[in-house]
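Cross-posted from the bioinformatics board.
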Amino acid sequence: MRQSYTERSVRLLGPKGWTAMLAFLALMLIIVPAMHLLAPPDSALHVSNYAVTLTGKIMCYAMVAVAMDLIWGYAGILSLGHGLFFALGGYAFGMYLMRQIGLEGNYHSALPDFMVFLDWKALPWYWQGTDNVVWAIVLTVGVPTVVAGVFGYFAFQSRIKGVYFSIITQALTYAAMLLFFRNETGFGGNNGFTDFKRILGYSITAPETRVVLLGLTALALAGTLLLGRWLVTSRYGRVLAATRDAESRVMFIGYNPLWYKLFIWTLSAALCGVAGALYVPQVGIINPGEMSAASSIEIAIWVAVGGRGTLIGAVIGAVVVNLAKSWFTVSFPQYWLFFLGFLFILVTLFLPQGIVGLYQKLTQRRTPDAPNAPAPTEATPSTPLTQEHAA
Amino acid sequence: MITPAIEDRPQWADASAGQARAVTPGALDIAHGVILYLDEISVSFDGFKALNKLSLHIDVGELRCIIGPNGAGKTTMMDVITGKTRPDSGKAFFGQTLDLTRLKEPEIAHAGIGRKFQKPTVFEQHTVFENLELAMKMDKRVWRSLFYKLDSEARGRIETVMEQIRLTAQAHRLAGLLSHGQKQWLEIGMLLMQEPRLLLLDEPVAGMTDDETMRTAELFVSLAGQHSLVVVEHDMAFVEKLGGKVTVLHEGSVLAEGDLATVQADDRVIEVYLGR
């Protein structure tokens, strides 16, 4: 029994995948922290604050991309509203960070500054208990789960599919953005939450806090990948892919696609919430801009660029596009959106399988007669994890 | 783990709807040796009588061919049996007790009637093995699927069916890469995985090569006995090879019934087929 369990774990990523995964974790948990904390700032080995924050931020985006790939690549559901779930997770944890400011805000009040500014006398009911980190974590996962669950139930129940579903998700995130822009909503209006001081009592800007957050994000990303891989190689994943390809046939052999779709949809939203919660303390701000239509579309572009239905492609796409974005917005800020649009058109026209598809094409051409018969239980339209994901 | 359809007690069995007589609720009763019984079924679409007092019965383990010119009502008859179309009048029973005119489509499928449509729809991005695995009769809720582990019994069943449909060598090929005939076999295999008592096959050899057609006939003959089969087909060589009883439909009712030679010698059948 134990043997087969080990076997299944090995097969989940393959030897190459596990090596890459461990290398990635070693890099993020040991090497980068050591280079950040121990190397003197003027040394060539020193990793700057900026680099640590950027790495952490991109890993959060990569998590969102994997969550997106689970529903888009494997269930064929294109969400253009995933920014909402990311932002909800971020806001939920942001509430905790706002409470951690304590009396150190500009107005030295127990209430967050924006509430003092609005002349509010007490915390609204939904802020109750947010000074408790456990409750904040529950909200982080719970709020996106409930929102996605309710929305998804009605959407899938009504058999809303394809482009209609995408448009509705886009409208949902837009509506939420308008709601969060209002000061009366109680989430800081268009400024959102910022000026965080502490997390669990530790200074949020301290190098030690940064590397801990970085490590947690790396673990969360690795966990998301493993969970995703486990899901898509299970019988559940095969039913899901079958639903994507021929839903009526799936119904005909006795499955109810509603629950299959709803499960992955809700899980995907919850993963986005976790990513959002990890993002906020590292980047130091959350505002309704995260719910804008463009942010959600960008998530889809990451996945398309990396390669849909591969999981690792989502990570690669998120890393490549966001590194390009960091460089562009510094060097040629006015051209970034043009470049993003151009990239999307280019990938859609010439690389329908994204970067991973291109890589597979190149390696297959080199070894045309490589035996490609997958093992009976793990054959899926997906590809095994390859070693690039330590990027 | 795998229970035959006749012993199943699905949740809808508690409702008294669907039973003419109270025997074992929801169970298939074939004590009289008849698995399907249609009595004076009529269906009309905007005044056009697709079925006109059609009466027909299929015995347990029988292999029956239904032939007839276009518009004779063959597909409508299948629709009535599977619950897709409700008859205007008449009775349709599965076994002695299950009233097909009152059950919903999934309930009928669950009770043990499997239908193969004309156009094969297999999961093209899945392998042959996976297609059969997905179709297997088992608990199909999300939670079970997440933690499902293929046991040797289930694997054995899939292998047996792959043997029957002659796709063992293609087990790990994507279904989308199979030939048209092989896809049809895979579809039949998926139907078999659901362990139906009665198989309805609508033009199963359409588009197959002669060789594939003959192999399909062999497969059906080997299935008769364990399953009851109703085959709608135009291909007379195929019908001859199957060798069972033949029913000729014409304008929504039975024109003639008997073995192929008898039916072919019938004057009315000749008239219908050759025109008047």
